[in-house]
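Teaching note: in complex prediction, the entire set of molecules is handled at once rather than each chain in isolation. The prompt given to students was simply: 'Predict the structure of this complex.' The entities are:
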Amino acid sequence: MTTDAAAPARPEARNPRGFADRRGRDLIAERRLVQRVSEVYERWGFEPLETGAFEYADALGKFLPDADRPNEGVFALQDDDDQWMALRYDLTAPLARFAAQGWETLPKPFRRYAFGPVWRNEKPGPGRFREFVQCDADTVGSDRPEADAEIIAMACEGLRAAGLDAGQAVVRVSNRKLFDGLFQAGGIEDAGQRLTALRAIDKFDRLGWEGVAALLGEGRLDDSGDYTRGARLPAGVIATIEGFLSSVADEGLTRAGTLDAVARVGGLGEIGEAALTELAAIDAALNAMKVSQDAVRFDPTIVRGLEYYTGAVFEAELLLDTVDDKGRAVRFGSIGGGGRYDDLVARFTGERLPATGFSFGVSRLASALRAAGRGDEDAVRGPVVVIVFSDADMQHYLDAVSELRNAGVAAELYLGRAGMKAQMKYADRRGAPAAVILGGDEIAAGQVTVKDLDAGRALAAGVSDNEAWKSERPGQQIVPRSELVATVARIVKQARTAS
Amino acid sequence: MTTDAAAPARPEARNPRGFADRRGRDLIAERRLVQRVSEVYERWGFEPLETGAFEYADALGKFLPDADRPNEGVFALQDDDDQWMALRYDLTAPLARFAAQGWETLPKPFRRYAFGPVWRNEKPGPGRFREFVQCDADTVGSDRPEADAEIIAMACEGLRAAGLDAGQAVVRVSNRKLFDGLFQAGGIEDAGQRLTALRAIDKFDRLGWEGVAALLGEGRLDDSGDYTRGARLPAGVIATIEGFLSSVADEGLTRAGTLDAVARVGGLGEIGEAALTELAAIDAALNAMKVSQDAVRFDPTIVRGLEYYTGAVFEAELLLDTVDDKGRAVRFGSIGGGGRYDDLVARFTGERLPATGFSFGVSRLASALRAAGRGDEDAVRGPVVVIVFSDADMQHYLDAVSELRNAGVAAELYLGRAGMKAQMKYADRRGAPAAVILGGDEIAAGQVTVKDLDAGRALAAGVSDNEAWKSERPGQQIVPRSELVATVARIVKQARTAS
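The expected output is the structure of the full assembly:
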């Protein structure tokens, strides 16, 4: 075979737009996160499910979150039998298809968790990818408020397992039916008007009451001069919403206290009252599961942008002040969310099937943890590198590598053909905690030189005179060959503890 | 919101053709397999890499294994900037793109492992999917035979970690240049003729020498009456190949013995002799790593169907006699393979970059392990189920579930609305080792009933009289409430040991 160096055009090696490669420490950190959350979810009785990357486009439906347009934003292609298939844009739509397909044979209620890539055919940008990993947990077939409470409590424990301490995250909970009831009591029947109003309320956090009031009324002119048409609700309904939102501004309220405050405002109608009863049952279950008032709060300003939620809605928020690479403060805000959606399976079967779930973006949570200084990527070290001098001594190098691996120490033989200096640089770039040097002299003397690379770096940093550094050989020790494994293991353990 | 029950057409809930859902025990078994192999690969110094699902079609190239046709067999679509993208069909092509793209900044040699789905747009059939999970390990940038030996030895240790004992699998190794040399020495320059000849030799295992000889010569009429045109090699070259293959029929030969036998046949030319030297160096490294003669054999009939291999080639074969679901004997044959490919990165850069790797199909290996009775899916049990009687006692049920989870026992509360009998059936279908019963009487007496479901099944099987079974309540015990966790933990531990 010959290379195609003479071929007219060589392809350029590049990622497709919006697709990224992930490797090494970041990837290991993300996998650990998923592993830890999975252990929690399995302990809570949720079984793993993996569906295929493709769904038929009609089965996928138009429930793309954050987009109201049907079948936009997905990667679709036509199969050779002319049926349109599309890559999943989330893990909920495939679950709905799976549950509808196999409902007769599934244990009911059906609890499952899932993680894996989802794809969105959107304009890529900095930090905005067209493929990313989500992690979901859902219970299908239970209308009990305890099912919502379980998902919420499990989400809290999952975030804890991922590395967030108590007080570093809060799950805010509300119920979409609070507003359904309020709209019905206020005579607002138009679905578009309701959606516009919910979107306005969703911005309470950012715009405050004045901005929201404008968007509930005629419309709002923002600072940039853009005009957003409002929901045009009657003044009476807007006043009720005002009382409603202001009643819950007190962050010191318990969950039960918030429910009392909302109830006192009134004007919720029959549906809204039912929503309060559901929230009270969720509160009782959360209390029974000893979920603290700080970990889960009730907050009626949480509406979630999605059209498909039908009851309780949840949003997990990072409370930590985080900094970016340049040390600037970053507000992470939402790191996950979910809620009750009782209509998704009905698309297939025509029959309502109660369902509730929680979802988070894996990379986003990993970034949040990293930014919060809670990532443990630093603890992920490269393998110990055994330096190669002479092909004739290969047996000695391979023996050393094998012994280290058999002792559970990640180790590798340098397999390039560069000299000592380049090999030390290689070990450094691999994040190796130690390098093992078996020169001819060492072998003849039954010894081995072990270089503690962290100690070497630390010592080198404290020594200004370059000649002194060279002569001192910081972090380097010569030990009997039989003490190789013990010596390296000690260094690796220190490296792990230190970082 | 209303359901779309009245909508004209509801989509049918179905998987796209050739795409499967995987869940529960099988999925857990596959993940454990990948986890165990990953631990080995990381201990050997291979770092994880995940590339995106899509590659640009030109970057993906026409190296689809087992298909000589360019750009066929992939799922491709045109991006909105008119560039064609395709889902990866293996993990090697994306690695070549990644290595070419970032070569300057990577530690060299670059070792990486990867696992994830790959997609092939082929006709689906029973057991033949269009999406499946592969697991690969490759070293890019080392021309050393020790790099091949390392991949081979690591593949052996990976298979061992996955659950195959010594003697249950063998990695057969050869070198494509043996035949390159033989062809060159025999004056066979035509690439098509060479490929046809290699394909014939690849069938030695199945057809024996007579069939292969026909395919190396004019052609072969098989039992079904189909005629396959042969490579039409000169008789002298065919005779050399015969001596070559027959010299290695002795399964008792060591790796060094096989090399000697091949060398004695002669006619290998300069390139073939170089191949023998490479294999001898691989043997030396395997011996240094204490890889037994049974675990890795040299076998010149191994050619691998792929066009892109340029040196050493490996094939991992399951040696176990396995049975299928119906108890019929199954020959699994190849469960993975790989080799040296020095031209893949050159597609992008014009410069040869040495590379070597090993790949296996995760589901296929899991099936092999299952068929060989080595799968441990049976050890994967469902959660303990806490039965629900009355909403008023919810606090008691939730307490029990929390206590069990906090003790590390997977547990769940039944969250449907069915009665006791249906709940016990549910627990059974979930594979629960135990059910926890907290009726009003138990709660009042400060007690709890724990049902050992395995013991219950076993006892029930031995009791013919249904009335007796009911009265004896097999496997059921009433203990003080304070002993719940200890009692359940004991049952769960027994269930794990027994299965």
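Point out the following to students. The domain at 24-188+234-377 of chain B is CATH 3.30.930.10 (BirA Bifunctional Protein; domain 2). Chain B touches chain A through 106 residues (CB under 8 Å).
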